[in-house]
């Protein structure tokens, strides 16, 4: 089942980002607490939540066929914490801007990030920015994944209601993220327009 398989590989990728990029980046380039927060936001919280989800899915896989795993119940139990994604997604553009500023300050940073990615076969040809956007991509994909699972679940199943609740939850989170993103873009356009105005 795609949602189970991809959840497990997703958390592996987040842990890979922390070990290959985040920890070395913070120590080697002496990032301030603010710089680290601006780039990685609340990734630790996201990793903690999704690690629990991945663990519960993995444990269920050991005793149940994939089609019997209580996917909806597992995800919905962690629902209050999944709004962490709103903060992470809202910060993503700022993360790239901050990273660009640090690259200007540390000329060898881009080389370090490239070599770190290329020296690890587990990165599979992906670079730091590819990993940094993974939480954004994941939260946006959840509604599609749950909709797919629902299509193959009987409405009479005890799991059906939980899956519906999850689909509604993730759809609302994605809607909130998109609205925040749109407001942020409009705000940035106002700032850019103001910067173009010549002082009289």
From TrEMBL:
| Entry-linked PROSITE patterns | DH_2
Question: InterPro entries in the record, alphabetically?
Answer: DBL_dom_sf, DH_dom, FYVE_RhoGEF_PH
Q: Its GO CC terms?
A: cytoplasm
Q: Which Gene3D superfamilies match?
A: Dbl homology (DH) domain
Q: Which GO terms describe its molecular function?
A: guanyl-nucleotide exchange factor activity
Q: Where is the DH domain?
A: 1-180
Q: What SMART domains has UniProt attached to this entry?
A: RhoGEF
Output this protein's name.
DH domain-containing protein
Give the originating organism.
Answer: Arcella intermedia
């Amino acid at each position: 089942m795609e949602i189970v398989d991809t959840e497990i590989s997703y958390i592996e990728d987040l842990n890979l980002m922390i070990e290959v990029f985040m920890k070395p980046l913070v120590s080697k380039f002496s990032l301030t607490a603010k710089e680290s927060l601006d780039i990685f936001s609340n990734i630790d919280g996201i990793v903690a939540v999704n690690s629990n989800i991945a663990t519960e899915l993995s444990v269920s896989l050991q005793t149940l066929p994939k089609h019997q795993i209580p996917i909806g119940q597992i995800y919905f139990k962690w629902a209050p914490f999944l709004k962490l994604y709103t903060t992470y997604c809202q910060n993503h553009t700022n993360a790239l801007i901050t990273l660009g500023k640090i690259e200007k300050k540390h000329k060898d940073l881009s080389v370090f990030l490239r070599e770190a990615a290329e020296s690890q076969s587990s990165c599979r040809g992906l670079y730091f920015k590819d990993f940094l956007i993974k939480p954004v991509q994941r939260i946006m994909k959840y509604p599609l994944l749950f909709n797919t699972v629902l299509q193959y679940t009987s409405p009479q199943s005890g799991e059906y209601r939980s899956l519906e609740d999850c689909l509604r939850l993730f759809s609302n989170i994605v809607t909130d993220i998109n609205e925040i993103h749109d407001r942020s873009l409009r705000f940035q356009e106002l700032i850019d327009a103001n910067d173009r105005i010549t002082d009289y």
